[in-house]
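Structure in, sequence out. Go:
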């Protein structure tokens, strides 16, 4: 291939990539990330929810569920063959090695499904803004193939209060869940946008809408 042709191919590939904007959305647990992703959808963005994909990976009949049972023991399954999420969570949130073992099973499925969804969206909307909502976007390195990264933040006390109310956790359990994640101060180092998830909803909508309009200009 000639040098001119090679350069042209790179330019065409770049143009094709810019036709669909891939945006990574992340944040700490209970920072308000789900609310922000919902508002992005209302603005017109396409959402791919990593948590939903992870749940689909371990429904009965999926190979990932069989791997989880084989790796963590049959006690991780309920009597009806479904995953006992509370029992598994009590293990992986306290042991980084066990958490890494679970992620090694689930993440390949999630990323493969993300790519499949992106291709389906691109086929219908070449200038789509696709938001990939993933709690572990930074930790897994998935942020590296995103055009923009958004981090949703909240102070720790707000996180604790929300977790206790939402998931019926004790104060200690809530703190364990927060401590198990990468500090928000580290996540925002790679962010193009930082959104305060404690803002009143009207103000939050204005901020998300502003960012979405900027992203549309890039798509």
């Amino acid at each position: 291939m000639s040098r001119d042709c090679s350069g042209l191919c790179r330019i065409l590939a770049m143009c094709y990539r810019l036709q669909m904007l891939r945006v990574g959305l992340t944040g700490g647990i209970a920072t308000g990330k789900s609310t922000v992703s919902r508002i992005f959808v209302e603005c017109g963005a396409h959402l791919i929810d990593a948590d939903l994909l992870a749940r689909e990976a371990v429904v009965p009949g999926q190979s990932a569920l069989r791997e989880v049972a084989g790796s963590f023991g049959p006690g991780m399954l309920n009597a009806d063959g479904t995953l006992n999420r509370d029992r598994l969570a009590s293990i992986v949130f306290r042991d980084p090695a066990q958490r890494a073992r679970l992620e090694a099973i689930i993440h390949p499925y999630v990323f493969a499904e993300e790519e499949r969804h992106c291709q389906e969206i691109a086929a219908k909307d070449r200038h789509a803004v696709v938001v990939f909502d993933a709690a572990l976007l930074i930790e897994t390195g998935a942020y590296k193939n995103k055009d923009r990264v958004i981090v949703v933040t909240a102070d720790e006390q707000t996180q604790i209060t929300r977790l206790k109310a939402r998931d019926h956790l004790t104060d200690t359990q809530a703190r364990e869940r927060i401590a198990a994640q990468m500090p928000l101060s580290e996540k925002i180092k790679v962010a193009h946008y930082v959104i305060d998830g404690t803002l009143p909803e009207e103000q939050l909508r204005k901020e998300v809408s502003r960012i979405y309009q900027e992203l549309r200009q890039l798509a």
